[in-house]
Amino acid sequence: MKVLAVILIGWGAGACCASAGAAAETGGGTLPLHECRLEHPLLISSVAARCGTLRVAEDPAQPSGAAIGLSVAVVPALDRRSAAAPLFVLAGGPGQSAQALYASFVGAFARINREHDIVLVDQRGTGKSAPLFCDYPQDWQELSDDAPALREATTKCLAKFGPRVRFYTTSAAVQDLDAVRQALGLRQIDLYGSSYGTRVAEAYMRRHPANVHAAILDGVVDPEKAIGPDTPFDGEAALNLILARCRDNRDCSAAYPNLSQELDALRRRFGPERQTLTLDDPSSGIPRQIEFNRSMLSAALRFLSYGASTASLLPALIHQGAAGNLRPMASQTIMVARQVGDQLASGMQNSVVCSEDVPLFATAGIDRGRIAATFAGLDQLDGLTEICKLWPQGPVDSDLHSPLRSTIPTLLLSGEADPVTPPRDAQHVAQGLLHHRHLVLPGEGHGQLATGCVPRLMAEFLNDASPEGLDAACLKQQAPPTFFVSLTGPAP
After folding, report:
1. Is there a contact between 3 and 221 (Cβ–Cβ < 8 Å)?
2. Cβ atoms of 68 and 55 closer than 8 Å
3. Beta strand pairing call for 212-218 and 410-415
4. Which parts of 273-326 fold into alpha helices (H)?
5. Taking CA 412 as the corner, what is the angle to CA 408 and CA 418, rounded to the nearest 5 degrees?
6. Which residue, among 317, 332, 319, has the nearest Cα to 280 in the 3D structure?
7. What is the C-alpha to C-alpha distance for residues 234 and 20, in angstroms, rounded to an integer?
8. 3-state class of 90 per DSSP?
């Protein structure tokens, strides 16, 4: 699941504020920082930073009550004389760690980091900030077909953390962000929000407009919509775009002339049918048995369509599956799903979605028949509903789902084939933004942070804060990865 008054114009870059690193070293802030390293989630690399912990009230309405620690990391700008606004990175999910996101994509932030400090606040409930990690079943049949198992896992998680989970919502996180800004002695900041992180960015822009110099929204969540009801349709539309791109590609269409029919056959088969497969576990290499069922097929089509690189595998995997070889699709799906699941604090995700989204389902005009006809079906919607029957609701700002009206310079990024935050959501948000630019990358999926020349465009935008004047001609040279015409790779 992936699953986001008087407005003041931000000041120009270079005139707004001292850097976060400089503030901490000269006494401009009150948050002490020490040398540390941020590790890649797969432990393949690390990056130097300065880290600290800010204590904040767990219940924002009770400042003198129980406190939690917010994990804060600052990656100082290479130019220590720069006065450019520090960039606060807001991760997606909900449930992803901002520090893990940065460590995974440090190269994409390199240009920005030349002049901007990077500030990484693990949102409450994620990463190292009082994380809410739950143990949900990992077997596909348990997750999708056994509502009692879902309820049991949710009950165990609540027994582990208690009713305090209700305080881990977007509204509380926005208060935390501004507390960090103040503790670092900063006047204005830049924002980069990815996926759900765009909801946090939008809420911060709404609540603290004078504190934001510029904002980048990547994979834009429409604040007026609930996460969930449209996701099956968005996933179906993205999959159709991938299939159409294969048909329009000479090599892909030659390799898979009947791709749509093969997919239809798989979808018909793995409605009622299940098949037991023996495959080498993609993590351990140990042989194991798994059940390939409708939920496994749905997960494959969903997870592998998120990014253009994994989408390039889909035609080959669909073709192999239709021919009876389901192991490659199953292996890829398990591997991607684990990488996603290992990085998400599902308890924090429950707190957000159960407080901010599921309560809107009753008025969302949900057409269960239409949803059931999509490859995703009703699994996610019904699963969320089951969880949220048990999960306590927390504080939500009354205007969280109101239209965003802002004069803050904003760059919006969308992938044409995004299966969860399609370009139309960003287009809708952009209607309320006085100074904005919306870039849609053809053939790309969810999240454009590391795509082509986007890192350079983000750096140029933050330096100038002029979305209308941004020269994005380099995107004309950008194309999604070539489709695999066999399991060995693309055409030569």
Report:
1. yes
2. yes
3. parallel
4. 294-303, 308-311, 314-322
5. 155
6. 332
7. 39
8. strand
The beta strand positions in 195-348, using DSSP E, are 212-218, 275-280, 287-292
State how far the Cα of 416 lies from the Cα of 342, in Å rounded to an integer.
27
- What's this model's pTM, rounded to 2 decimal places? 0.93
Residue with tokens 């969810």: 446
Find residue 437's DSSP bridge partners: 411
Give the SS3 label for residue 57. strand
Q: How far apart are CA 133 and CA 346, in angstroms?
A: 6
Facing residues of 268 across strands?
Answer: none
What is the C-alpha to C-alpha distance for residues 56 and 123, in angstroms, rounded to an integer?
Answer: 12
Q: Which stretches within 73-229 are classed as H helix?
A: 98-104, 110-115, 140-145, 147-161, 170-183, 196-207
Tell me if the domain spanning 20-226+399-477 has CATH number 3.40.50.1820.
yes
Angle at 384 between CA 299 and CA 361, to 5 degrees: 115
CB 264 within 8 A of CB 292: no
Give dist(CA 160, CA 419) in Å, integer. Answer: 33
- Token output for 240: 């159709």
Q: Which two tokens stand for residue 48?
A: 């130097």
Give dist(CA 429, CA 457) in Å, integer: 20
Per-residue pLDDT of the chain (492 residues; tens, 9 = 90+): 233 222 222 223 333 344 565 554 434 689 999 999 999 998 899 999 999 999 999 999 999 999 999 999 999 999 999 999 999 999 999 999 999 999 999 999 999 999 999 999 999 999 999 999 998 876 544 344 578 888 999 999 999 999 999 999 999 999 999 999 999 999 999 999 999 999 999 999 999 999 999 999 999 999 999 999 999 999 999 999 999 999 999 999 999 999 999 999 999 999 889 999 999 888 888 999 999 999 999 999 999 999 999 999 999 999 999 999 999 999 999 998 888 888 899 999 999 999 999 999 988 889 999 999 999 999 999 999 999 999 999 999 999 999 999 999 999 999 999 999 999 999 999 999 999 999 999 999 999 999 999 999 999 999 999 999 999 999 999 999 999 999 999 988
Query: Which residue matches tokens 């822009």?
Result: 205
Place of tokens 């989630």: 41
Question: Token pair of 192, please?
Answer: 């980069």
